[in-house]
Each structure stands twice: as structure tokens, then as C-alpha cells.
Amino acid sequence: MKKNLLATLLLAVSYSLGIVAQQPRWQMLPDGAIEWKTEVHAPHYDHLEMSGKQVSVVLRYGIDYNGAFTVNKSMVWPLLRTIPNNTHASLMRRYDWNPLDVITVNGRAFTDEKVDNIRQKGILTVESSYDWGGYGKCKLLRQYFPSTDLPALVENYALVNTGGKILSVEIPTTKNETLTDPKFGVNGTYRIESSIDRDGCFYVQPGDTLHFTAYIVGYKEGQPELRIDGQKEMQKRTAVVNQWMNNLVLETPDPIIDRMFAFSKIRACESIYETQGGPMHGPGGESYYAAIWANDQAEYINPYFPFTGYQYGNASALNSFMHFARFMNDEWKPIPSSIVAEGLDIWNGVGDRGDAAMIAYGASRYALARGSREEARQLWPLITWCLEYCHRKLNAEGVVASDTDELENRFPSGEANLCTSSLYYDALNSAAYLAKELGEKATVSNTYRKQATELRKAIENYFGAEVEGFDTYAYYKGNDILRSWICIPLTVGIDERADATIDALFSPRLWTDNGLLTQAGSETFWDRSTLYALRGVYAVGETKKATDFLHRYSATRLLGEHVPYAIEAWPEGGQRHLSAESGLYGRIITEGLFGIRPTGFKTFSLTPQLPEEWNEMKLKNIHAFGSDFDVEVVRMSPQSVKVYITSNGKKQTKTVKTGETVSITLK
């Protein structure tokens, strides 16, 4: 016993020191899931967020020193608003409630658990074994997931009798109710119910299975009680996860990148809440719900939704832009950074973050990729207002001034930052394409293109600098420390300093095992800048570097110690699974690897960046530009590739040089 304990402790110390790190903790399964097999019961803990239209949950789960499963359920009900009704005013509760604590098998509690494996694919599944000697044996399967459309966390249980004796399972009547303090609820008292759907004594024959469901649900006062059907809820969740994974399918010689891309669509698409202000995509993280931001939603995720084929995602994108449009004004005051509380309030606590540039960038790209003239016409006033706002904010040197950037004074950004001007540059180019599609006068497109040309020169003159020995960009005037956001110009087609910028990004001053540091010499990293950087490095043709680092990043996030999605930041937030970052991961593929750049309702430019080690890559079931189409890239020689575009049963074939841009018109 002492030897076993010592071995366990030594193994745990080895894991904590990174000594035993040869194999990833998780493995990929043929059915599209990932699995953590637990032959060695060293303790390990992780956290995962999952969401539905009325609920989100962060599961803090793991395996303890005895090999048993542990879980804490952090519940969030975005539509149950608390007082004060601000950004963070969703009803939240953390529970250690374990339904198994009240259930007995042959008169004994559920003890001596050994977890066999834990799996993930939009549902957290735990398989465990119990051996009580003469009292019997069983397998237990748990499934944790949010309801797709009800305010409930669902826990399905399947107990399989694996021994030779009948198991007598006693489930007591379990229905716990909590009434919250009415003075803290916008709608007064809220009712939280935790329950098990079955009670009584059940005899499970050898080889047979007993199913039951537990759930935690939140209600407004007066709402009728819900009947939660665990199997029906699982079918709904499985169906929507399969829908996300079966649209916009990536096939490459790298299965880790393929799987990470598939998983990223789950987190990107699930975090949309059916608020009184319409569908609102929210970052999550036990903080950000029933609200929208100019960066997370307008800039990061909305331009991606048309490609996914998720109509509820498109609806949330259009809804968010129309919320921002409410704040256009003749005095040219800034649009709020965030619209919160289901659309009833705003947050602009740090002033102008360059939000108009973020909105113009996202709305114009979304409108083009969506391919809907009606939606584009709705968005056009917002786009043109934001562009004019940015134009009015140009300083004497011709770049856009703002109070701060999207990091909101966590790090210095000066009076004008590289990110805002780069986004404005891209928005001008997109608006020029969009003006033509909408039948605007030629002078409109010409003006925007002229302004973009002038801005590009101003960006070079104002931000171009030698920083720490790299001929790259100063993030703001006077900045002499490398910053991760120097990657932004690469993503919008500004490549004058591409080589030195890439060298700086991948230098030990910025790149770590967790991606880019926000600022050289710090310990802080935000995945969003890493995801932008990888997209930008592909965009300028440094395919080998981009692929090597994308593979390493994907393996860490999908199969490492904290899985399975892109994260927000560290140390802030403890690496929360904020949802829009998963959209940014997807855009590495669509805009970086395949180089899709919207140019019209039915047209786009394509710059395929096929890695040297790959002979082909495919992106199938793309839902954009009003079409459903596939893109296949096949190597013909070291210098050329053949591109096949299949849409509506028709195939276009183009032969291009490696890294060459080709114009595509869908028919």
C-alpha cells in the first residue's frame, strides 16, 4: 500500500513538473470525439463550458487521487437577470450536488469508483467501474450537457450490471427547490430546482441497464414546471452538434488540425442566447452573457457565421449589428463598446476602443459573405456611419485616434493604435466591394479605395519602426517593446513588413508553448492574438511556419492539459473557454489556409496556401455567398496547385501558382 501511494505521488509530481509529457492526455476517437483513458489514476482537473439558448454551465471536473470522478457545476442563466442589471447580471450558482450521493446499490453507497475514460464531443461523457466484491459490480455511464433550448443542465445516467448478482437500486424521491432573494432579481424571486426523474426500488438483472436522469433548472416566478426528458434532450443536443460538425468540414493530412477545427465550431456556435432583445452571441466565461461586444461579436465571430451554415448564428450576427445601429448619431459620439442586459443597457467604461472600426470591419465582411442583398442594405447605413466616424478620428498623421483598444488599458495603446487603423483599412476595402454590389455610385467605391490607399501609407509611416531589433511595427507611437498585435496588418493584406514581423512573432520574446505573449517580457497571453497571428502568417505565404505552429497550438488546446477549445487568456480568467475565440480559430482555416476573401455577394478571392508537406486539402459544405460549395486544392508540382470549386453540381477548375490569388464567381 505504501509503495503504491509513493508511486502515485511521484507520478503526480512528475506530471506537475512536466517530466511525464511524452504523450498527450487526450486521444482522438474515430467517431469524432476525444477521449482521456485513465489507466493511470494520477489526479488531474480541468474545466469546460457548454451552452444552450437559455443556460450555460462551466463544469470543473477531474479525477482525484483515488481514481474517482469529481465535478462542480457552475450554472449560469442569462435570461434570469439580477440587480444591478449590468454586464455580469446573469443568475449564477455553483453546485457540488451529486445525485449518486442519495442512491444505494444493494444497500451500499456509490463508493470505490474507478474512472475508465472521459470523452468529449459536445457532451461530457464519463465511464466508470464499481466493484463491491460480494455486493456486486457495475459500470456507470454519465452524460453532462446543457439543453439546447430549455434552462436546464441535463445529466443522464446508465447503470449496467456487469456482475453475476441482481442489483437492488434504491432512488429516493429527490426534488430540491431554492427560491432566490427577490430583492436581487429583476423579475423578483427565481426558482432553482434540482431533481432526479425516477424514484423507487429497481432490480437490475446481470447484463441489464437502468437509466435515469438528473437535472438542474432555473425558472422565473410563475413559469410552469418543466418535464425534462433526458433522452430527448440528448437527441436534440447530439443533432445540433452533428449539424455544426457536418457543415464546413475540413479535410487535410493533419487529423489534429481537422479535429480542432471541428470542435471549434461547437463552441463558436453554441453560445447564443434567446434574449428579449433577440438572439445574442455571448463570450461566456461566467461573466459575459445576454450581451454583445464590438470586438467579440462584430469583429471576431460575425464574419465567420455565414461559412458555418448555422442560420441561428447568422440571425445573431444581424441582430447584433442592428443593436449597434441604434446608437448612430449626428453628433458623432462613439458607439458603445458593448450592449448589455438583453439590449436594455450599454457599457462604454473605457471610452472609444476603436469600436467603430471593429463594427465596420465585421459588418462589411459579414454582409459580403452572407450574400443577402436585403441584409446588406439593412447594414449599409451602419457601415457608412462607422467609416465616417473613423475618418473624422484621423489624426494629423492620418491614422485613427482612440482612447484605448480592445484590451481596455490592460496594456498601453497610446493615442492611436495599430489594430484600429488596420481594421479600418480592411473595412474601407470591403465597403468598396459592397458599394458596387448595392448599386451605389462609382464615386462611393472610388472614395473608399482612395482612403484605404492613403491609410495604408499612413500606417507604414506612423507605426513602421524597429522594435527590439525587428523591422516591424510599434503598436503605438513610442512603443519600444514587442507586442503580439503587430500581427494585425498581415491579416488585412498589409505585407510591407511581413518577414520581420513574422520573425518577431515567432521569436522567444513573444512565442511560448501557449502561443503569443501579449507583450514581450510579460507572462500574459491572450489566444485571440495568437489566432490572428496564425491567420496572418498564412495570408502572407509563410505556410511552413504557420502550419508547424498551428499544429502545436492545436495539439495543446485539443489534446493537452486544458481542452478542447481555444481560450481567452491567462492569468486573467484562468483560461476560460470564451466562445468567439473558437470563431477566430475557424477563420485561420477559411481566411488563412484557404485565403477566402469576400469581394461580392457571389464572388471571392482565393489564395490557397497548401503546406509543402501536404498534397491536398479540402473545405466542404461551405455555406457562404448564398451557396453551398466545396473547395479542393491538389498539388500539381512544387510551384503550382489545382483548385476545384464545386457548387450546385457544377465544378470549376483553376490551376494557380503556389500562393497566387484567383478570383472565384459562384454560379
Describe this structure in words.
31% of the residues lie in helices and 30% in strands. Helix 6 packs across helix 7 and helix 13 runs antiparallel to helix 14. It has 667 residues and is of the alpha+beta class. The longest helix is centred in the last third of the chain and has 22 residues, at 442-463. A hairpin with a 2-residue loop joins strand 7 and strand 8.
By DSSP (H or I, 4+ residues per run), the number of helices equals 15
Q: Please state the structural category.
A: alpha+beta
Mean pLDDT: 95
User: What percent strand?
Assistant: 25-35%
- Sheet having the most strands: 9 strands, antiparallel
Strand arrangement within the widest β-sheet reads 1-2-9-10-11-12-17-15-14
What general outline do the C-alpha atoms trace? globular
What ranges have pLDDT less than 50 throughout 5 or more consecutive residues? 1-21
* Number of distinct beta strands: 36
**CA-to-CA gap between the ends?**
71 Å
Question: What share of residues is helical?
Answer: 25-40%
User: Over all CA atoms, what is the radius of gyration?
Assistant: 26 Å
